[in-house]
Amino acid sequence: MKNEKKKLSLTVQIVIGLVLGVIAGLLLQNNAAFAKEYIKPFGTIYLNLIKTIVVPVVLLSIIQGIISLEDVKKVGSIGIRTVAYYMCTTALAVTIGLLFANLLSVGAGYVLPSEELSYEATAAPGFMTTLVNIFPSNIIQPLANATMLQVIVIAILFGFGIILAGEKGKVAANVVDSFAEVSFKIMGMIIRLSAIGVFALICPVVAENGPKVLLPLLKVILVAYAAYIIHMLVVYSTSVKLFAGMSPLKFFKGMSQPMIFAFSSASSVGVLPFNLEATEKKLGVRKEIGSFVLPLGATINMDGTAIYQGVCAIFIAQIFGFDLTISQQITIILTATLASIGTAGVPGSGMIMLTMVLQSVGLPVEGIALVAGIDRILDMGRTVVNITGDAACSVCVDAMDKKREAKKLAK
Ligand code: ASP
Known about the structure:
Blueprint: H1 2-27, H2 32-69, H3 72-103, H4 127-133, H5 140-145, H6 148-165, H7 170-191, H8 194-208, H9 211-214, H10 218-244, H11 248-254, H12 256-265, H13 268-281, H14 287-300, H15 303-319, H16 326-342, H17 349-360, H18 368-372, H19 375-410
């Protein structure tokens, strides 16, 4: 009970940090440079601390998760379910984004300000390059650069290696276990600073993007947020109810802390420590499942980003007078699903991957310039969806696996 109280107070602290950050941001609107120069750095320090610990946490928790599954086949079956869930929900997410943007004519009534139209497209990698980039060419660099997909591949290889080494792998397993615990403790210390971190992250965003920047593109923001919310309420509520018999209310309540943090930090990877804790402690997901499904999700599963890409593609098409055919919209669903895998879980990366989606159907990449000004606002919402989707998947995969084990025992 005492423990419960303590955790509640951290959520309350984060909410207070968020609210104070917004108020301070509004007050500092005419002095955004101050917020940028003196408040933002504290947010950066906080995110940097999280980034420092997140690589060891991902590496060690995935290895630990795989070792505790004990059997290569079992890892395979959980992996397939996880990836299948991620792919299906992401495809659904783009579809919802496209539907909302089409039905609500997201681009209607917007006048194109010609001076804004220059966007230097950062080349988004093609499919084959994305595929090659998943695999590391050495062990050190991916860890140093926090290239998450490669870190995951390294973790999977070592996890399998330790299982296959049997008796001789025991020492390695113990070392992983011990360092994993140490990393989690470090993570716990950093998480305690969250209220300050959230304050320092949100304040400069509000100061820089006050109502002035938001108003002209309010419709894009509203359509994207409507799609984000409907996707979470429909897809995640249904899947946790259907696969795990969990009440959606319990799910969202348990997720409140990671969701608030996602909103303020716009970084799935940064939220990972919160997500690991919330799914285990509040939603009852077994640690070995969570520590495999969540880091993978923070890297490849981006439903919110997919929704955003659908909405922006239609917005840009409508502004430039393109009529997208059904087959072009299907192409968008496919590319956005793939693009979301390649999107890194850090602020702003979804916008870079939007280039790939626009190019796939021949839409002008310059259109990104129109939404670039409000990207952070869209990013905060899409990150909330991204991490909530990871958690929903961990709840479902955990429940499916428990059922499978119960059946096996009954035989
Ligand atoms: N910021 C998002 C995330 O970390 C990725 C994106 O930019 O869409 O999940």
